[in-house]
Amino acid sequence: MKTGERRPVSFYLLAAFFGLFVLFLYGPIVTIGILSFQGPNGGLTFPMNGVSLHWFGNLFERQAVGDFGGSFTRSILLGFIVMGITVVVSLAAGFAFRRPFPGSKALFYLTVASLIVPSVLVSLGIGLMFNIAGIEPNWYSSALGAHLTWTLPFGLLIMFAVFNRFNRAFEEAARDLGATPWQTVRHVVVPIILPSLIGIALFGFTLSYDEFARTLMTAGSFNTLPLEIYGMTTNVTTPVLYALGTVTTVFSFVVIGLAVGGVLLIGRRRSRHGSDAGKGV
Amino acid sequence: MTATADTAAAPAAKPAARRRRGGTGWWVSWLQVAPLAVILTVFLVLPIAAIVTVSFWDYDSVRIIPDFVLTNYEELFGSTVTWRIYLNTLKYVALTWTLTLLIGFTVAWFLAFHVRSVTWQMVLFLVCTIPFWTSNIIRMISWIPFLGRNGLLNSSLLSMGVIDAPLEFLLFSDFSVVLAYVHLYTLFMVVPIFNTMMRIDRSLVEAARDAGANGFQILTSVILPLTKPGIAIGSIFVVTQVMGDFITVRLMSGGQSASVGLMMANEISLLQYPAAAANAVILLLVVLLMVAAMLRVVDIRKEL
Question: How many CB pairs under 8 A join A and B?
Answer without folding.
Answer: 255
